[in-house]
Amino acid sequence: MAQLKVTLIHSVAHRLPKQRKIVEAMGLHRVNSTVIQPDNEATRGALFQIAHLIKVEEVK
Question: Does the keyword Ribosomal protein apply (predicted)?
């Protein structure tokens, strides 16, 4: 199964509470923090909601 490397590139300050919760649930805390997430439908749906705040790369 492929995995996704997710990096927070914009601050969550002044964002909607739902977007803040998604970022926190992903394990991202500060700008430039990075986490590895599984590539599945649930993760993709959450990433779609915060696409303007993150950078996503595929890890093999």
Answer: yes
Residue 12 to residues 3, 42, 43, 51, 56: CA-CA distances in angstroms?
A: 24, 21, 18, 12, 17
Distance in angstroms (rounded) separating the CA atoms of residues 39 and 19: 19
55: β partners = 7
Yes or no: say if 8 and 54 are a contact pair by the CB < 8 Å rule.
Answer: yes
| Low-confidence spans in the chain with pLDDT less than 70 | none
Q: Which domains does the chain have, with CATH numbers?
A: 3-59 (3.30.1390.20)
Tell me if residue 37 falls in helix, strand or coil: strand
